[in-house]
What does this fold into?
Amino acid sequence: MKLKKFGALMLSAMMLAGAFVGCGSTKEEGAGSDKQASAGETQDVTLKIWVPEEEVDITDAMVKKFDEIHDEFNITYEIAVVGIDEAPANLETDADTAADIFYTPSGGVADLANKGLLLPIVKDFETIKDELPESALNAVTVDDITYAVPFSPNTFFMYYNKDLYTEDEVKNLDTMMAKDLGEGKYNFGSKMTDSWYTEMYFLGNEGTLFGEDGQDPTDCSFNDANGLAAGEYLIDLAHNPKYIEDIDGVAGSEFKNGNCGAVTSGAWSAPEFREALGDSLGAVALPTATIGGKEVQLSNFVDFKTITVKSNTQYPLAAQQLAVYMGNAENCLTRYEKQGDIPVLASLAASDEIQADFVASALNAQAAKATNQPSIPKMGDYWDPMKALGEGIYYGDVTKANLQEQLDALVDSITGTLTE
Amino acid sequence: MNRTVIGLNLKYFFHSIVATLLMFTGLFLPYASINDGRKNILSIALSLTGVNEKSGLTLFMYLTIVFTIMSFVLCVANIIKTTKLSFKTWQVLQACATAFWTFLLFSSKSILEGGNLVKGFLNKNLSIGYWLGFVFAYVALVFIMRVTQTNRGYIALTIMSVIWVFPILWIVLTALRAEPGYYVGYFFPKHLTLDNFAKLFAADSVIPFAKWWLNTFIVAMCACVINTLIILATSYILSRTRFAGRKAFMNILMIIGLFPGFMSLIAVYNILKGLGINQSLFALIVVGAAGAAMGYHVSKGFFDTIPRAIDEAAIIDGASRLQIFTHITLPLSKSIVVYQALGAFLAAWSDYIFPSMLFGDKQSSYTVAVGLYWLTDFRRIDAYYTQFAAGAVIVAIPIVILFVWLQRFYVEGLSGSVKG
Amino acid sequence: MRKDIISKISYVVCGAANVACGQILKGLIFLGIEISYILFMILTGFERLRGLITLGENVQGMAFNEELGIYEMSAGDNSMLILLSGVVTVVITIAFILFWLFTISSGRAALNRAKEGKHNNNFIEDIRSLANKNIRFLFLSVPVVGLGVFTVMPLIYMILMAFTNYDSNHQPPGNLFDWVGIKNFITLLSTSDRLSATFWPVLGWTLIWGFAATFSCYFGGMFLAMIINSKGIEFKKVWRTIFVLTMAIPAFISLRVVATMLGEKGIFNVLLQQWGFTNSALPFLSNGTWARFSVIIVNFWIGVPVTMLMVSGILMNIPGELYESAKIDGASPFMMFRKITFPYMWFVTTPYLISNLISNFNNFNTIYFLTAGEPLTLNYYKGAGKTDLLVTWLYKLTKDSNDYNLAATIGIIIFVISAIFTLVSFSRSNALKNEEGFS
It folds into this structure.
């Protein structure tokens, strides 16, 4: 009796729900089916754009200008604040309410493209293609199709305090660590408990992640002899009292107070460091280090900030033209001037203005020495195990005695799958 | 000692005297091992009076000595002539002495190092004199309180309150701190300000905090009313009526509570989208209300304790079930109503996971929880930490008010309830 | 004879029997619901059920449009939405079948009563009975519909996901996924040493955590409430308010703040060093064992006030005469607690304890915001953390590898274990069995 009456109640409500869910899933507006305007006609276009909160104003200006240039579009637009890190997850949650144009880190491009969420960028792309370095193009290309417009390299390099180190000293990490900076001062700060930083020792010492080209999900050489040497180097560094671990920005604060000689960080730290240290601030590529008896250049991941278009946009033509426009030289320069995003385009990177900017030169110098961050979906399995290794080393659970074993576990965790 | 004094329980008089004496002895025994041997607290205090630059906390040491001696004096006075008044005075002085012996545990390092008596002091260097004073201060206080027939719970409550309030105080102080930043090496801010609050509500702020606060308030108020009604109705039925399928229903509720909820969030989102209410505050209220029934346990347990005889009598008088619920059960259960209402309000007020996914890019619908969490992103936390704390304080205010206000009903409801 | 025919007709035409017995409005409502169900099935329902079998056939297409010089996408089927809408349809159908059985029995009852010459309720009387005899229908309808739509349907969807190949290579909307039967269970249970090497330790910690978190808060809160409510404590309201301050700040904020306070350079370490308790930072959250104690203690800090409030309420409900007579018999306070307070409390709060225990096993929030499962360790697969519970570990598996099918499978295994555990431990508990009142 009881259950049956409940059934009756549920039924009526669920029929309603069902009917609506039906609308949701059967509503297949064939994307790309927008009525293309014939020559000379103006097409009404509605676009939504996601940018980080600092870029709302400049993006607004960009879209207005784009609308002026392109008579064939009459653009109505909406700009919402969604950061570059948050955009991919929001897109996956609901592609219908997602923005037509948004920022994505190049590391996520391949994954989103495999899920069918990105629209290939073709129209107008040739206008900037020649100016893009090969590494940037590789990072946004999947099966010979380009899915994103890269506009700025993203990697970390080294800031140093000119009062504490000379330009020559910051070329080698061991020279730096050997120098006595005085009581209460740290020589070097980095973040080995963050897997975005830890790889620099391994990749620097000829290690590879997912093969030479970053495409082979079964390969990771961090547990070979070179990897072992890199791990030992990290253990020594962690136990060096002159090293400070940058947990929650601690090293950054010490650096700003003049108590730390050098820290690894990215372009985003430049404004606060400049404010704190003024002319004493210097920036260079990562130093070399003597790992396993030979001097090697530390090499980290580089990826790119990119502009992408969602696959089910109603206005693919306008959207990708705007995306390319937002990534062109003029707008990259604006973004550099207003936001400090260092442009990737060759003509800008070579310009006097950017050559004169030591932060930009450091970033570009490091980008040249860096390794492209693999963009295969398997990359998702890299972060936690590597972080576990970094934490283990820093907190002393990983010692030289059990290092090999831990590195084997690391590689197994990164390359293995649950279903093998 | 076979005296009797009205209002005093002299059974423990002797114990109090011994404990006070032992505490007093602590003054003359070695306080801490200091460079050149062990000194007692009196000689340390004496040598500190000569030092010009000493820690402000040295006052604690003087006060410890003063109160200990005064307590001893009162002890002697009470031996000579025991009155209620002098015993109460003794108790107050002993409480002060106990507090300061405790403070010394936390300030010895500063006092001794501030007076240049010792370097690198650790509390394990404290000697017998201190520990004797510290332990017997408490013992004496307990016995004196037994004599004056004061509830010893005050001691436990005081200690627990300090522990419980400590982190809250830290949040409040951070909210009032003028110096920005995440980590500071001191407890009390160097400069106090209300700017952090002002910034949250400033028109040009990146965070529309007032709007978020209002959103949260609306949701929490609705949840408070609707969820409470649903929980009470469900638990009333499960407690007071018997029908086929009742046990099965309770088991089903328990079992679905076991599934990890986050995995079905995406499905919930799509159902809401099918109903056309995704990204809205209404959706948050609906989903909260839909799951409310699962928390029926507590109020069902409460209803179970209300004698069924009352219901039966009312039925004989011709009351309907609904009338029994509204006119008899609810008035008897004010405390549980308040408990559930408070719980529902709190839960809605601080829910994070689902709202963070539900709203996506629609910042105008954010609740404070989602908004505040957004501030703790690693790139923002250093700059916004004090504002984050200010936000936390503002969020807490309505709940404190609600509780102070509702406590009256709480207690009334309890005392008015049926006895066994 | 006529009765037979009518009751047979009412198998097909819902409510026919009721109409025949004079319950016209009721019968028509039954019929209306039946018709709308049939319409729904014809319009979209059968299509959706078919989708549930195929999980979509058209793959998203991409073609180069020469004229415009761009790629154009043609939307394909979204397996995930198809699965979900199939689940909705199935649940609706089950609900309809229950409803159909209900109309039949309702019709039969009406016919019987008519035959015996008894009165059949008219519609208004039916409505009235909702306030009395049938009050459960009135009170439970909203919760049942709510749970059905927002809990049960998503749950079925999640369970079904374990029987598909919805992994990183089959992500909608770009790709379709399909049914694979119990393949996921077989691969997980038979082949994976990696999984079990992590699963058992994590399960062990989940159990320890669940019990420690639940009972520490339970007894702590009871202790606190008994002190505050004992005779001779003044300003009870003030004391309660002090402890409730912890509840006033949303848990995730206080957890985030406490996490920073416990950091290597956090205020606790700063103060402990200033106070001379230690001269090097204590690894509150960075050492596995320390971190496990820390999370339990922080949870204690957050949980005690909640229990305190609840227990305060119950304490006042204990009949005062019990204490009076115990006092006359010369019982010590401890004896009174053991013989009167605690048994009563235990009786009233067992359901609370059970639900609390379950929610602590699944306490995603506390762990996620306080430690996010850290410190991580390579002894666990994929660097799961020492404070990871099964749920937070599961969350990482979904987030990092996008293997939704495996996560759902593990979710089901976790569920089965915790369900067995809960049922075995508590199905025989007194409070659940003996609901008829404390004596």
About this structure: The mean pLDDT of chain A is 85. The CA atoms of residues 45 and 75 of chain A lie 5 Å apart. The interface with chain B takes residues 1-3, 16-18, 20-25, 50, 53, 80-83, 90, 93-94, 96-99, 248-250, 252-253, 268 of chain A (CB under 8 Å).
